[in-house]
Amino acid sequence: MTYRPGPGGANVPGKPRVLRPYVGGVGACRQKCDEVAANGYPGFTLRALAS
Fold first, then answer.
1. pTM higher than 0.90
2. Res 25: pLDDT
3. Burial status of residue 11 (CB atoms within 10 A of its CB: 0-12, 13-18, 19 or more)
């Protein structure tokens, strides 16, 4: 399965597409994104795409 950013469920066949906004606010969201990036994206496996 390939992850495609966008509305939730868009990349899962048969799953309804829903918007799941982050309700913590833009500042809190940015802070969390920066924290995750600074820690090397724990829980994610990053690899280069074949070109």
1. no
2. 81
3. middle
Contact 8, 20 (CB under 8 A): yes
Cβ–Cβ < 8 Å for 9, 17: yes
CA nearest neighbour of 1 among 44, 10, 48: 10
9 CB-contact burial (10 Å; exposed 0-12 / middle 13-18 / buried 19+) = middle
- Gap between the Cα atoms of 29 and 13, Å rounded: 28
| Residue 9 contacts residue 16 (beta carbons within 8 Å) | yes
What is the tens place of the pLDDT at every residue in 3-49? Answer: 455 555 566 777 777 777 777 788 888 899 999 999 999 998 888 88
